[in-house]
Hints:
two-stranded antiparallel sheet; mainly alpha; flat; 2 domains; MetI-like fold
Amino acid sequence: MTTVTGGADPVRELRAIRSDLLHQIWISRADYLYVLPAIVVMLVVIAYPIYYTIDLSFFKTPPGLQLKDKSFIGLENYTTILTSAVFWRVTLNTVIWTLSSTLIAFVLGFALALALHREFFGRAMLRAIFIVPWVISAVAASYIWKWIYHSDFGIIGVVLMQLGIVDRPPNFIDSVNTVLPSLIVVNIWREFPFALIMMMAGLQTVPEQLLRAAQVDGASAWQRFWHVTFPHLRGVSTVTILLLAVANFNSFVIPWIMTGGGPSNASHIWITHIYELAFGRQRWGVASAYSVLLFIILMTLGYFYVRALSQGERKEPGA
């Protein structure tokens, strides 16, 4: 490889470097041809839509007009978003939705993984039962729970009335105050099996010798968990939480099918609000600006996910 030395002609050295680089590419041309189809697919399916969305976020696209009639307005769409009261309400809903769903689903899955890690009769059947919510289609689960929450014919309301707890069926998804918690319950029910599977896999990596040694030394069950089990699960716990956070932040099916963001935007989160702006109101520019902000947040979470994976690989014994 050519290197730039003191006193040499910079232009000549740069030409030499470019020549060497082109020579290396030509030598490895077969390798590039192998990956060329994948690169083309990524450019068409991923890179171009990202570029077009970012570009469209700087234009005004009035409803009813063709995209060719768009007009450049700079950062006005972003200013409109950040000064909108609806944006901050949707953002608060998204934060509550993401944090509640992620943390509760993880804690519930972790607790069940610890319970199912021990040998007892019927453990395999319980494992299969707990995984069912994750196997069911999100669309089917949304319609099932929409019927369960129905204010007139929902099974929960009927049971509560028969037990004499309430006089009339509660409005779970028809009330501004209860719609978001009700959707979070459905989302937790749908996602805790993922945390259960991940943590059950992580528990298999905890050395039994260390647990027995700690028990012989007189450590209590809590001390064995905190000082032996949990440190070995720190990596898989971080990865699980990040994956749940990304999935919840980008979740669409359950809130859209069950409520469509209503009533009065009480159950709108970012992804459903973007969909409504784009395909309901045809405000493509504003929706694109929302999408760019969402993309930045998801890329940030993705960075921490990759970093957690890299740290886990470096800590592997014998690596």
